[in-house]
Amino acid sequence: MFTSLRVLGVLVLFDHKMQRDSTNTSGVVFQQLQDVIRIQQQVILSLNEKNKGVVPSDKYERIVSELKEERHQHKKTSERLSQESEKLSFAIGEIQILTQKLEREKETFEKALRSEKTKAGKELAKNNKLNTKCARIKSIILKREDILNEKENQINELHSKLEKQKISLRARLTDLEIQRQQEEYMARVLQRS
Fold first, then answer.
1. According to DSSP H, which parts of 53-128 are helical?
2. pLDDT in tens, the chain (193 residues)
3. Do 141 and 116 form a contact (C-beta atoms < 8 A)?
4. Max Cα separation, the chain?
């Protein structure tokens, strides 16, 4: 740039001298030199404009390396999320199967209990001989009620465990979603850089 300015200064002095000589040939030469300087200035300005958007190679390689690492971490996170989702689905499936089984057993037991109570009422009306048998049936009924209570307690425990697992897994999924969004944000920021 300084060289162009010096040449321009020389040309201005040359132009004054040429004007004094007032020959056509020197005017043409002077005009051609001015054209060359103008073209050089345009090329210099063009090169300066092009160099504004250039990123140093070490910075570019560092950013590419960071982007690769982010993608690798994102892939690992996605794989972990997929594994945890599969585990959750499996656990929920097992709990649903157990809950349905317990509900069927409870319904079956309640039907049997109602039936036994009806029979016991009829047997008591018959005679003293059947009182012993009725007492035995009542004992069975009490045992079945204990079993029913125990199964109800198991159902309640399973429901409680299910709720705790849901809360824990929701929190985990939320953490993974936040991490995924952060990774996407970082990837977008790196792409803009």
1. 57-126
2. 444 445 455 555 555 554 554 455 666 777 777 888 888 888 777 776 666 666 667 877 888 888 888 888 888 888 888 888 888 889 888 989 999 998 999 999 999 889 988 877 776 667 767 678 778 889 999 999 999 999 999 999 999 999 999 999 999 999 999 999 999 899 888 887 6
3. yes
4. 154
The Cβ of residue 120 has, within 10 Å, a number of other Cβ atoms equal to 19
Report the chain's C-alpha Rg in angstroms: 46
Distance CA 63, CA 52 (A): 19
Q: What is the pTM of this model?
A: 0.30
Q: At what angle do helices 2-21 and 24-52 cross, to 10 degrees?
A: 170
Token couple for 72:
């690798």
Reference 138, options 116, 170, 111; nearest CA is 116
